[in-house]
Amino acid sequence: MSSLALVPYTFSLLKLPFIALQNVSDCLNPFEIYHFSRISKKTNKLAKTISKKATQIFLTSPFSALISFNKKESWSFKPTIEPGPDSYTVHSDTSGPTRSRHGYGFFSKKPASKVLKVLEWVIDLYKNSIVHLSFDSRSSNRQDLISHFNWFIENPSEVPFISMKCSDAEDVQFFIENYKKSSKKLNLLFDLGSEEELELPDNLETNLFEEVEIHNSHPVNFDLYNIFRGSIIFSMEAKLTNQDLNTFLKNWQSGLTNSYWRNVCFNMIGQVNLISILDGVAATYRDPRNVKRQINMATESFWIFGGIDIQKQDGTATATVQWKKYKVENEVSDVPIKLIREYERNQESGEIQRHEEGELTFERFLELHRFSMYIW
């Protein structure tokens, strides 16, 4: 037998016609295209012509750059400081059987800086400069986080969303003082089960986020909300009470909260009791047949018919509470009969009423576990 028979047959991808190369590329996964692009300038240029556009790119802590092309699969590049051979893994997401998570792990002496180089490469290769961020203060040291924050100041990538998980008030202060990239939405999460009160400095403030979502298990501290000068605040508060919301409304009326807010929504563990929340707060009940106001939000436009209004003491702003109850499609929509009846009943008594329905007694204008206000 000839010794040539023992040599595997090979051919150069670079010699293929472009149409044939496109067919070959359909058999390559994102990791293989990435490796192909790193061989030479020529292969990098060719890889860019055959690669698909990523629908999403994430940078997560401690050190991972993730890309996806659909909702079924994701591909993570994970440099690690632990020596060892490159590894490839596949995990199925138990929450969605059709979703697979692919991982490529490789050794790097400096994984924090290496993942930024990988991110820069995949942004160029997979034709998407929009990056979503997800950081955890417990899994990354602060110097690494600062280097990641600074990278987005020095590069033109857009960051529509950032998630930051914090353990305490110091983490919040560190994030606000060091992250400087404008983003559409911030998701701020706190460790579960903490009883430590968040003590924040008075001068802490940022206007980088249009919308802020807060998940807090610490005791309630409304100073946290005053940090953010965005227009939308959404909160999941584990220890929030109706008395806390009453205090919040009185603070708002007195001008002690941020004047930039337009839509504030609290989710709470207990039941929303509007009578307790509005205790000592002057409220005006608007006639849904005559008072019709339009709301224009980022994702939709609609109208509010009637509603319960409270006003700042200096007269500079009005808030409609539980406004989603009065939401209708357009100005010419029929006025719901139940809103007219509620308005007339409350006008007669001058206060929010309880009423019986079967064997159940509930508060009027009740929206269980959620309190919202829209500020005009």
Automatic annotation (TrEMBL):
Domain F-box, first and last residues per copy: 10-57
A UniProt-annotated Pfam family: F-box
InterPro entries: F-box_dom
Name of the featured protein: F-box domain-containing protein
Organism of provenance: Caenorhabditis brenneri (Nematode worm)
